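quick one: cytidine-5'-diphosphate bound model?
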Amino acid sequence: MKTYSIAIDGPAASGKSTAAKGVAKALDFLYLDTGAMYRAITLYMIEKGLDTRSEEDAKSILDKVTMREDKNGHIFLNERDVTERVREEDVTKLVSYACAHKAVRERLVALQREMAKGESVVMDGRDIGTVVLPDATLKVYQVASVESRAKRRYLEELSKGKEASLDEIQKDIERRDYIDSHREHSPLRKAEDAILLDTSDLTIQEEIDAILSLFHEKAGELK
Ligand code: CDP
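yep, here:
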């Protein structure tokens, strides 16, 4: 059977995962949240008292962790459901360090390709179109102003009943964007053949519809 893949990349809190989930559901494709996998590695390092900035520390845990994602978008670290836990602030603050190590990237990229094998998938992250799925049917590079991204994340935190500061969220997003786009290995950048989608003024449904119509166009061209 023919399989298709959609790669959605972009900076922090640009709405990628919500849109990617909606697109996967509409097309009945598998959804893989690669950010959650880097977050799970980070969580494991925090729990073991390791230094996320140290490549040696990161390397030392790679064969001690198993990871899988289920159909409901839950992530399991050594079979423990850490879906909610990996989105906590301590992990968010350190993930950009842990994920920058070459060994971590190699391991997770291999795992992501393995998970996608033989499936039609929607994957979101920072290096999907450039590294993980260079032959994806559709590549979208999603951007939004830092103000609108911070506001979305702020409202998301409030809706979970958490306390949040808009200013701190915006600073953290800017800091992560900087680290993600300046790191040596697989930095965040738009693949040449990715389609730029500015979602600053789009609702989630408009974003999903825009990606679906781009996909149908691309898939139609392949027929
Ligand atoms: O949802 P949000 O944009 O806050 O983050 P995420 O998609 O869960 O990703 C968390 C972090 O993982 C990012 O800031 C990147 O540092 C890293 N990441 C990456 O390096 N490569 C990916 N394919 C996905 C995430």
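DSSP finds nine helices and eight strands in the chain.
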